[in-house]
Amino acid sequence: MDLTEVASIIGAEFNGISFEITGLNTLKEASSNEVTFVSNSKYIKDIQNTKAAAVIIDKSLKSHIPQGCAALVVDSPYWSMAVLSKYFSPPIEDDQLPYAEIGEGSRVSPKAEIANGAKIGKNCTILAHVYIGAQTVVGDNTIIYPNVTVYRDCTIGNDCIIHANTTIGSDGFGFATNKLGEHKKIYQNGNVAIEEDVEIGSSTTIDRAVFGTTLIKKGTRIDNLVQVGHNCEIGEYCVMVSQSGLAGSTKLGRNVVMGGQSATAGHLEIAPFNTFAARSGITKSIKESGKTFSGFPLMEHKMWLRLQVKIARLLK
Prior knowledge:
CATH class of the domain at 210-316: Mainly Beta
Strand order of the largest sheet: 6-9-12-15-20-23-26-29-32-34-35
CATH architecture of the domain at 210-316: 3 Solenoid
Helix content: 10-25%
Number of helices: 4
Largest sheet: 11 strands, mixed
Oligomer: single chain
Distance between the termini: 70 Å
């Protein structure tokens, strides 16, 4: 899309030399052919280092735009980004893509649907009513049980097991809200990548990234009924027990264990080898490794046990 057209869609003034824009991305990840946005002054330090062709920004921050980067000034950058995201969203399916490729030795149920552009590795088992979206890649020796849905552009590694009714690559829960309280969908134009030797239980949902990738690293085990939000990163050999959940952009280090119904707030980083007991509520990043936590507000498990004893004594 031409940069002048981008400016027109969001109602921004642009009088410079126009050129082709290939997509939207974050301040840190945007390339010289992409548009980014700034909706909060705490990201001022990142503006100077962006490689983006143009930045959607409000008037108060315009002076921070580096030389050679176009400023697209609007009243609400976050809302404008949401409006623009639709225009860079790929088609759900694409008949122009080549027929799906099925690797040697793979068994695909005639009741499964593999979209154009998808690739299935060797010795896979794809059971009834599975849907594999366009441009999705499934590695070797992977088993996908009935009614699993994998949206377009996702990747699943070798030796994985995906149990029934799980959804991989559905849209993250993202929207902008204006001053009138109206909501505008942010199209999730990233993907999900699952590395090798990952097992995912039934009826679990893993949301695709807004930009970039929601990443599940090798050896991880995810139980039934787990929610993984957009842009999350789950480290190697983590364990997530049933009904646990991660809000968007959370990063778990290696071998983190999330007990049943435990959950994190968004944009947190959890150090490796930490364990969270059932119903733990994590609202801040955890920088120390090798500890066990419980409760809400969150505290170390030994302290939580002592607290329960004192509460029980008060009730006698």
